[in-house]
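Case study 2.
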Amino acid sequence: MRKFIFNGAVISAIIGLWSTIQETKEGRRDWRVVLMWVSAAISVVIAVGTVLEESREADEREIRR
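Prediction:
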């Protein structure tokens, strides 16, 4: 869990998700809102996937030693 909390990509994606939530609450509802949500979701998925990949690579390096 710690690897997710302290990762810069995950923190950035969560901040982007938060701003998307705030914009959805306060802004107009049009096609751009959908694009913002898709973008935020893709950012979170990529950030989490990157952390998992880095963790797997670190485990493999540890096994090889």
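The helical segments are 2-5, 8-26, 31-64.
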